[in-house]
Amino acid sequence: MNKSDKLLVQIQEIADFVGLSVKTVKKLAENNDMPADKIDGTWYSHKDAIEQWIFERCYSKKKLKRKAVVK
To answer: Does domain 3-59 have CATH number 3.40.50?
Structure first.
């Protein structure tokens, strides 16, 4: 099995895949806004779950509400 065949991916690979920073991906995972679990101090997710999450975020009718910025 080569690296691209892995089912579980770590946070850096998730960030690279979705085009977000590691910090943002970590925050999404910690807030349960992204399908990921912390195992022995390292965040992991299933590749298919990330692809489904992206699809739902991009194409679902129910968009996430953005928090208003108060100045």
So the answer is: no
